[in-house]
């Protein structure tokens, strides 16, 4: 079982993801996007960074790399796919997930720790938590404000496809605990299947005990789920 971490020009969290996954005993390898998906791929990470300098829109160019057609096909076969930060932007730009991550309300790059409320505990990415649990993970982005048409957001909410929301330490959400102005405090969403998820915060940076909180480990443990799930 090998998780492919796809490196685009300008990815910069690929090695963080590799180290975090290996720390959890999950086999992972960095794959240059032009090389295509390896045969034995059992999971895919779209890592954070600034692919193609965030020109045009963050994630827009990486989403058009030919490997993304392979990623979409693997995702529809049930291979778990996790997009983190720039990877979340690439996920939305490539149609793996709905909505868009756009310029923070502050119009600034924000690098801080945030609290997230786990909205579901029955997905591979959140099975390690309880529904309503609050976890602490870092954010580091300039374009993390989740945006989507109100009607479509209502549908996604009705379909239970919101995975994480920004909240305070007690799990309360609202505008005062919304670091980037995301609609309804959305920090992470699911794709068509629960095996596809994107989120702006960085679980891979909250995994190694030597560098701070380890609340992100549970998200990465989603790759331990069988692809038949
Ligand atoms: N850490 C990241 O992946 C950065 C994401 C993105 N390039 C942004 O600033 O919004």
Automatic annotation (TrEMBL):
It is found in: Cytoplasm. Its EC number is 6.3.5.3, 3.5.1.2. The active site is at residues 85, 202, 204. One of its GO terms (molecular function) is glutaminase activity. Pathway: Purine metabolism; IMP biosynthesis via de novo pathway; 5-amino-1-(5-phospho-D-ribosyl)imidazole from N(2)-formyl-N(1)-(5-phospho-D-ribosyl)glycinamide: step 1/2. Its main location: cytoplasm. CDD domains: GATase1_FGAR_AT. One of its GO terms (cellular component) is cytoplasm. One of its GO terms (biological process) is 'de novo' IMP biosynthetic process. It catalyses: N(2)-formyl-N(1)-(5-phospho-beta-D-ribosyl)glycinamide + L-glutamine + ATP + H2O = 2-formamido-N(1)-(5-O-phospho-beta-D-ribosyl)acetamidine + L-glutamate + ADP + phosphate + H(+); L-glutamine + H2O = L-glutamate + NH4(+). Keywords: ATP-binding, Cytoplasm, Glutamine amidotransferase, Hydrolase, Ligase, Nucleotide-binding, Purine biosynthesis. Part of the FGAM synthase complex composed of 1 PurL, 1 PurQ and 2 PurS subunits. HAMAP family: PurQ (MF_00421). Part of the phosphoribosylformylglycinamidine synthase complex involved in the purines biosynthetic pathway. Catalyzes the ATP-dependent conversion of formylglycinamide ribonucleotide (FGAR) and glutamine to yield formylglycinamidine ribonucleotide (FGAM) and glutamate. The FGAM synthase complex is composed of three subunits. PurQ produces an ammonia molecule by converting glutamine to glutamate. PurL transfers the ammonia molecule to FGAR to form FGAM in an ATP-dependent manner. This is Phosphoribosylformylglycinamidine synthase subunit PurQ. It comes from Halopiger aswanensis.
């Amino acid at each position: 079982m090998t998780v492919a971490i796809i490196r685009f020009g300008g990815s910069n969290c690929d090695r963080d993801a590799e180290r975090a996954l290996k720390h959890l005993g999950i086999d992972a390898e960095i794959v240059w996007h032009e090389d295509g998906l390896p045969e034995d791929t059992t999971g895919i990470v779209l890592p954070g960074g600034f692919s193609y300098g965030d020109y045009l829109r963050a994630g827009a160019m990486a989403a058009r790399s030919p490997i993304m057609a392979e990623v979409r096909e693997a995702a529809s076969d049930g291979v778990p796919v996790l997009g983190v930060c720039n990877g979340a932007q690439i996920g939305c730009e490539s149609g793996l997930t709905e909505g868009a991550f756009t310029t923070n309300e502050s119009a600034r790059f924000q690098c801080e720790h945030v609290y997230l409320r786990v909205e579901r505990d029955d997905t591979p990415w959140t099975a390690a938590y309880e529904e309503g649990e609050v976890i602490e993970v870092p954010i580091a982005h300039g374009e993390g404000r989740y945006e989507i048409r109100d009607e479509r957001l209502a549908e996604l909410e009705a379909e239970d496809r919101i995975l994480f929301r920004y909240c305070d330490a007690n799990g309360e959400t609202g505008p005062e605990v919304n670091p980037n102005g995301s609609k309804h405090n959305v920090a992470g969403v699911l794709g068509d299947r629960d095996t596809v998820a994107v989120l702006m915060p960085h679980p891979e940076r909250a995994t190694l005990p030597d560098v701070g909180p380890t609340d992100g480990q549970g998200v990465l443990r989603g790759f331990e789920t069988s692809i038949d799930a």
